[in-house]
Amino acid sequence: MTNEELWKAVLGEMELSLTRANFTTWFKNTSVLSKDKNAVVVSVPNGFIKEWLENKFNKRILESIRNQNPEIREVRYTIGRPKIELARRDFSNVLLEKELESESDSGADKDIDGATNLNKKYTFESFIVGSNNELAHAACLAVTKNLGKLYNPLFLYGGVGLGKTHLLQAIGNKVLGENSSKNILYISAEKFTSNITETIMNRTIEDLKSKYAQLDLLIIDDIQFIAGKEKTQEIVFSTFNELYGKNKQIVLSSDRPPQSIPTLEERLRSRFEGGMIADIGIPDFETRLAILKQKSREKNYDFNEETFVYIATHIQKNVRELEGALNRVGAFSQIYNRTPDTKEVKNILNTYLTTPYKKTSPQSILKAVADFYSISGGDLIKRSRKKEVVKPRQVAMFLLREETKLSFPEIGQKLGGRDHSTVIHACEKIKSEVSVDEPLKQELVLIKERVYNSFEK
């Protein structure tokens, strides 16, 4: 085994047990400088990293080296430029590449149609249908056959990483594939807003309006982003009316239903609710398993059933995380040119499986609630009785009780010193309403998703 191969194997094992940030910080620009019968000399870029590797990682590094060369008894570190560079496709690089593949807007430039912004890889054929998304899938497919006439607008909503972008772009790709003369645009609401700001500065806003007015199919992803942006909402409203009046199709997505988007103009809300609204929920076990197997076929992975079952069992709420986990296992397989066993799969996915179970805190819940409803943390504590503050405050009380098990008096203290009876009333009210109010139920799911996703940032 060459020095380069030895160090690549060590880095692969270290990568599995560290966050990407830690791995990059302590192991970037390191290499094996020399190796004799009993010792390995590792080149490091500076004294700080040398000291850290000696004090914090030496035992693990030595164990890893001894797995490859049992006769090695010592690892020494020296400051200097490495004589050899790591192979370009080391574990870190392969892993990064594969995780990028699973991002919602990923894909090589050659797969992006510049005129429409559509990514060719998003098709109905590659979308796995399950009980969590069958209505949304059916509605999207129906739209392609009755453009502008059946469900207009079509409004999809659901949590992060559940497949909204895939379905939206599948609509565009199918329509374009069947009629290349159709004028189609897929755009994120953030990019839409950015375009409006730019054209206002350049005094070309009328040109932009005219461009949108010529569309046969307008698809806007993450429409909740326009909340509170008056000029953007004005352009969306006028574009909506223009296209709708000509029976042109409008498709929108959001992380929540229209009635739950804060600071959205009522005239827009009513138009969003005027067509078909379909939600995408969390996939069940069978759907997760099917997704993993299809993705594995697409990427030419060869894993056993036990690996698929393990991933599908432990990663439940996010399709993107499922694919990310599969990519990590695939990166291991590619680097070591073998299929990992179940124990190795568990080690590879350690960070995926441990992060979501960290205990939450009252502060993270209050922040998630405030962010979701577009109010400040201070608003939750103030004595305001405004409708836009009262509901979020009651939701915060309910979630604090459910997720942290704080006592009613403790929750009252967290929210401006309110009496425990006020907290009890709020918790009972939300608990009662959530059983019959589907939008509120979805809001709670999305807020909790924000809370637990915050651990990963």
What is the share of helical residues? Answer: 55-70%
Q: Which H/E pattern describes the elements? A: HHEEHEHHEHEHHEHEHEHHHHHHHHHHH
Please state the average pLDDT score. 85
Distance between the termini: 38 Å
Q: Give the overall shape, derived from the CA principal axes.
A: globular
Sheet with the most strands: spatial strand order: 5-6-7-4-8
By DSSP, the count of extended strands is 8
Indicate the radius of gyration in whole angstroms. Answer: 26 Å
Report strand %.
5-15%
Largest sheet entry: 5 strands, parallel
Task: Kindly name the structural category.
Answer: alpha/beta
Contiguous helical run count: 21
Pick out the low-confidence regions: 82-89, 102-108
Notes on the protein architecture:
- By secondary structure, this protein is of the alpha/beta class.
- The protein is 56% helix and 9% strand.
- It has 21 helices and eight strands.
- The strands form two sheets. Strands 5-6-7-4-8 form a five-stranded parallel beta sheet, with helices on both faces.
- Strand 1 and strand 2 form a beta hairpin.
- Helix 4 runs antiparallel to helix 13 and helix 19 packs across helix 20.
- The protein is globular, with a radius of gyration of 26 Å.
- The chain starts with a helix and ends with a helix.
- About 3% of the residues have low confidence.
Topology of this structure?
Elements (H helix, E strand, L loop, with lengths): L2 H15 L2 H8 L3 E5 L3 E6 L2 H22 L5 E6 L11 H11 L32 H12 L8 E5 L5 H15 L5 E5 H14 L2 H9 L3 E5 L8 H16 L3 E6 L11 H7 L3 E5 L4 H14 L6 H10 L4 H18 L5 H7 L1 H5 L7 H11 L4 H5 L5 H18 L3 H7 L5 H15 L3 H16 L4
Parallel strand pairs: 2-3, 4-7, 4-8, 5-6, 6-7
Antiparallel strand pairs: 1-2
